[in-house]
Amino acid sequence: MYTLTQLGWNNHFQKEWDALSLTDFIPARIITENKTQYKLISETGIFEANLMGKLLYGSEAEDLPKVGDWVAFQAMDDQNGFIFETLPRQNSLARKKAGQEQSAQIIASNIDKAFLVQSLDHNFNIRRLERYLVQVYEFDIQPIIILNKSDLCDDLVEKIMEIEAIAPSVKIYPCSVHDETGMEDIKTEVKEGESIIFLGSSGVGKSSIINYMMGETHFKTSEISDAVNKGKHTTTHRELIVLPEGGILIDNPGTREFGLTDVKKGLEMTFEEIQVLAEGCRFKGCTHQHEPDCKVQEALAEGTLSEDRFQSYLKLQRESANYQMSNYERRKKDKSLGKMYKSIQNGSRKLKNK
């Protein structure tokens, strides 16, 4: 079996564990989740587990264990047990829930790196890549860009230059699972004890890359449909996999919608050149659209900042602002409802005491 260190345990989790002062439990890490049923891995093996205590009845959705979380676990036999507590996360990757609801959905927790996978065909999209970078940077996760299906690409150098223009400090690995070009280079990014999540659209080859790293066919794979140019959701759930040679991979279902949450830091890091320009604007809080002496507008006029890049920045900024405002209104409404409920309870007690 694996040691805790091989499973991603570090000083942060040891400190949190010591603070709990638990004697009848062991640390374990969530592999998969299905509502209140979980599969987890510990130094002693793999178990099925259910929630117990306050986790089962008194927790918000975001506080329940997610893939990648460390938990306090008690085994009942050699296959089953109970989860008592979720350890505070080192970080977590979230996105806005699909649809109109303005709330966050945690994808996975305690992540070191994100492999942002695009395929070098019709799936290649700089604007989508910017969206992933913003969200990943927001949660202090190191992005690494994987360009799959290089065997199908006639303009690889040009595509890499496009990416370098918007993400100059991010490592880029072109590869082909089909002929295994560049696959060993990607494996150098997988270190013992590090957790890596795969992000990208359906059909770009995330599961195929994981299968290669595992040396076996662990996940089913399917190609992008030629008819509609959209991938099929081959991966239907998130799963944490520990590699025999070291490293932890989290496969994630392909996403056609990756909504942003509150990502102020992520925007600043992804669009760093716009932040640098903004420091020279005449007005603090310049929107870079109609104010005089705006350095961003000057860069657009001179052609040193592309209009497409700027419009992408504005779009993602608006999306994040909309999430912040809607989330604020929702919390305000929940607080108001809570006060009303408390007032009703107090009124009922007074009537009983009369």
UniProtKB/TrEMBL annotation:
Annotated binding of Zn(2+), by residue: 281, 286, 288, 294
Cell compartments where the protein resides: Cytoplasm
GO MF assignments: GTP binding; GTPase activity; metal ion binding; rRNA binding
GO cellular component: cytoplasm
Co-factor(s): Zn(2+)
Residue ranges constituting the EngC GTPase domain according to the UniProt record: 109-256
Domain annotation CP-type G: ranges: 99-258
Basic and acidic residues bias (residue ranges): 328-337
Enzyme class: hydrolase
EC id: 3.6.1.-
Positions of region (Disordered): 324-354
A single GO BP: ribosomal small subunit biogenesis
Keywords: Cytoplasm, GTP-binding, Hydrolase, Metal-binding, Nucleotide-binding, Ribosome biogenesis, RNA-binding, rRNA-binding, Zinc
InterPro entries (UniProt xref): G_CP_dom, P-loop_NTPase, Ribosome_biogen_GTPase_RsgA, RsgA_GTPase_dom
Major location category of this protein: cytoplasm
Binding positions for GTP per the UniProt entry: 148-151, 200-208
Keyword RNA-binding in annotation: yes
Record's cofactor remark: Binds 1 zinc ion per subunit.
NCBIfam families for this protein: ribosome small subunit-dependent GTPase A
Family under the similarity heading: Belongs to the TRAFAC class YlqF/YawG GTPase family. RsgA subfamily.
Subunit annotation: Monomer. Associates with 30S ribosomal subunit, binds 16S rRNA.
Record-linked PANTHER family: SMALL RIBOSOMAL SUBUNIT BIOGENESIS GTPASE RSGA (PTHR32120)
Primary role: One of several proteins that assist in the late maturation steps of the functional core of the 30S ribosomal subunit. Helps release RbfA from mature subunits. May play a role in the assembly of ribosomal proteins into the subunit. Circularly permuted GTPase that catalyzes slow GTP hydrolysis, GTPase activity is stimulated by the 30S ribosomal subunit.
Protein name: Small ribosomal subunit biogenesis GTPase RsgA
Organism, as annotated: Sediminitomix flava
